[in-house]
Amino acid sequence: MSSIYAYFESLAKEPYFLPSIVISVSIALLITYLQDKPKNNDDSQSTDNKPTASSDPHQPATATDAAPKPKAFALPTTELPPPNTTRVFTHEELAKHDGKDPEAPIYVAIKGTVFDVSAKRAMYGPGAGYSCFAGKDASKALGKSSLKIEECVADYSDLTEKELKVLNDWYSFFEKRYPIVGKTEA
């Protein structure tokens, strides 16, 4: 029995143990809140709960994939508009789309592609769980699964192979759910 206690005690001493638990619990609470929140008239989010292999890029396909997916991760019920890859955003222009102006759309860039995430203002707007990504290219942070504002940068050249896969999974996730409205300048 003492070896079990020693094991858990050693886990608790890991420097990232507590922050990772706090982040995981916070995300779970946010998803639960968004699922239970009454639907507004202007909120035309999907209720499509059909499981797909890529509905959640961070979960392997399992027998539990038959369970309904949280609405926050559901695919849109309407077809996305064609990607606009001709518009080029400067970093200053992109920064204006951070959600602070309720009349302006919210944009998040990944690997230089700008996505309109305005439909999920509750997730990307000011004070929301993913607001750190709004108005910037968050490639490095997404690859590292980080919510640190200092890691929300376009340069992801130092990501490991595993982190690059996570980043590519996030790109695919966004590409299926949010309209592409442009590119960032090089």
Describe the structure.
The protein is of the alpha+beta class and 186 residues long. The protein has a four-stranded mixed beta sheet with strand order 1-4-3-2. Strand 2 and strand 3 form a beta hairpin.
Question: Layout of SSEs?
Answer:
Blueprint lengths: L1 H12 L3 H20 L51 E2 L1 H5 L11 E4 L2 E4 L4 H4 L14 H5 L17 H17 L2 E5 L2
Parallel strand pairs: 1-4
Antiparallel strand pairs: 2-3, 3-4
Features:
about 190 residues, alpha+beta, 4 strands, about 35% helix, globular
Brief sketch in words of this structure:
By secondary structure, the chain is an alpha+beta fold. It has helices spanning 2-13, 17-36, 91-95, 121-124, 139-143, 161-177, and strands spanning 88-89, 107-110, 113-116, 180-184.
Q: What's the average pLDDT?
A: 78
Q: What is the helix content? A: 25-40%
Task: Tell me the series of helices and strands, N- to C-terminal.
Answer: HHEHEEHHHE
> What is the topology, as strand order, of the major beta sheet?
1-4-3-2
- Shape assignment: globular
Would you identify the regions where 5 or more consecutive residues have pLDDT less than 50?
Answer: 41-55, 60-64
How many strand segments? 4
